[in-house]
Amino acid sequence: MQLSRDDLLGAYRRMATIRQFEERLHEEIKTGEIAGFTHLYCGQEAAAVGVCDHLTDDDYIVSTHRGHGHCIAKGCDVKGMMKEIYGRRDGLCKGRGGSMHIADLSVGMLGANGIVGAGAPQAVGAAIAAKLDGNGRVAIAFSGDGACNQGTTFEAMNLAVVVKAPAIFVFENNHYSEHTGVDYAVGTNKDIASRAEAFGMKAWRANGCDYFDTYDAMRELLDHVRAGNGPAAIELDTERFYGHFEGDPQRYRGPGELDRLREDRDCLKAFRARVGEAKLLDIAELDAIDAEVAQLIDESVTEARAAPAPDPASVAEDVYVDY
Amino acid sequence: MAVMNIREAINHTLHAEMERDPSIIVLGEDVVGGAGTAGGQEAIGGIWGTTGGLYAKFGAERVIDTPISESAIVGAAAGAALAGKRPVAELMFADFIGVSLDQLWNQMGKFRYMFGGKTKCPAVVRMIYGAGMNAAAQHSQSVYALLTSMPGLKVVMPATPADAKGLLTEALRGDDPVMFMEHKTLYGVKGEVPDGEHRQRFGEARMVREGGDVTIVACGRMVGFSEKVSDKLAGEGIGVDLLDLRTTSPLDEEAILDSVEATGRLVIVDESPPRCSLASDIASIVAARAFTSLKAPPAMVTGPHSPIPFARELERAWVPSPPKIEDAVRQVLAFR
């Protein structure tokens, strides 16, 4: 770990932004003002931020239907995201995409995706583009443990190895694909990294609830990929605090499981303890960030509520560039 | 003007456009051929011969042989397009869209809309379609009606070498995802092809014949069949307006309506099963917008509502043929 104070403060700010964005959504959804399906990322913050802190706007990511955390970690505008989730005209995607389809190509965010496993081949395509240009960019495919069972993911891993594309498969294993446990659904002893290894690439494993572990593993992995060794993978062991979708009562959880996660597997708590004990940062500084983030999230909700709805007359705009 | 066949026109256009625009890449199964074999690369240049010589000229970085993984091929094309390239993905048989449909339909066709118009996806998916080679139910289909029904995709079907060049050039210069459909029995069709730059706008049907008594609307292989019928009927003094659609999305509705308003009689020739087909789509447009011009109900010449069979006799019975088109024309003319 070679992180400056600014790096650490920035990492905490991004994780705290994801956390508060999600916790606030969890509350706001109950008001009935937010339409459609929303899948919260809360609990997995260290994964998104530990991965994306190594990237610039020139690198690419493709995301999942649980994409808010990836968007924020990659630098999407938080207020634009909130407006999008509220279905507003000046949301990041003009209210056309909603929670599941947020994209912002200006920061290399090629899209959240409503189809489980659809992003991996797209990341390989972006990586092929980067390789052709020789610009050192990489493309990250975020996938969950659910997507690791999709054929598209296998096809993408094989193609990436064959063409030596600088693609990185980040498997966030939060132990549940929808409402089904990873022990049941992943045949290889619930180990996803070994699947990637079987396709002929090097794979890392890291604690996705620990920012530092994820960050360090990603640095090694990126050195390997940027050196021209083709694709690589990482399996991040992480946790999802909320259900598959908002409103999911999580009856599949064991007794006390959620309380234990919040107690023992909270990546923000772990980060605060680590930097506090090592005297890297003052806890008061982190509290100050929390307060700033709270204000940003407040503003984003207030502005989203007040923002105009899209004009129904625009319903069929932007299907084509030219038709 | 050079005379070439459709295969050569496509190959010539890929060479010319790749030379002009370094962002164009080609990927697909055996578009080079021979990778990992003792014989070595460029063994095939595409099983249809359309991508020959590209590897020698542009190299493995831009002409990419892929494993047999249609979802990955089309998905990689989608991702490469988002990342600033102009990928040309080849599906060896259009029937394989089933394997890659999500990447066509939910992904590249929807990116721009879902992302609020801030994205473009300039990918071309070349796919080889159609009956006529006894390739049976999983290698013979004309899936253009299915693709035409999907907003966000453009669907292009050249019937002549000149259009193959003009439409492919247009596809490669445009910014939307294009399904470029090549009929497997038309590759050998010869014709004059304009030298130098030649672009054919989408959504502009070609009036192949003007006759004034009856309108035939056709696309792809059905254009040639309809042309034969039109020639024969001209000898009897029956004048056919024959429209080659060129593209089914966008669709040149005005050309169809203009002709039908003049002739009052319409035959649609569509190499598909009949239900939810291009034929039924065009019939509904004409019924809704030119009802009072019609002197007879529109006739639809399609395959039966069945998969495409293998045996020569059965396949011939399945495909809309010149005699069936002729019968349909006589039927609409006889209607009183």
Short description:
Chain A: It catalyses: N(6)-[(R)-lipoyl]-L-lysyl-[protein] + pyruvate + H(+) = N(6)-[(R)-S(8)-acetyldihydrolipoyl]-L-lysyl-[protein] + CO2. The complex is a heterodimer of chains A (323) and B (336). With 323 residues, chain A is of the alpha/beta class.
Q: What gross morphology of chain A would you assign?
A: globular
Instruction: Name the chain pair with the biggest interface and residue counts per chain.
Output: A-B, 49 and 46 residues
CATH architecture descriptor of the largest domain in chain B: 3-Layer(aba) Sandwich
Based on helices, strands and strand pairing, what is the structural class of chain B?
Answer: alpha/beta
Mean model confidence by pLDDT of chain A: 96
> Which word captures the global form of chain B?
globular
What is the CATH C-level name of the largest domain in chain B? Alpha Beta
- The number of distinct β-strands of chain A equals 7
Order of helices and strands of chain B: EHEHEHEHHEHEHEEEEHEEHEHEHH
Question: What's the average pLDDT of chain B?
Answer: 97
- pLDDT < 50 stretches of chain B: none
Pfam families (chain B): Transket_pyr, Transketolase_C
Domain Transketolase-like pyrimidine-binding (chain B): 4-189
Protein name (chain B): Alpha-ketoacid dehydrogenase subunit beta
Keywords (chain B): Oxidoreductase
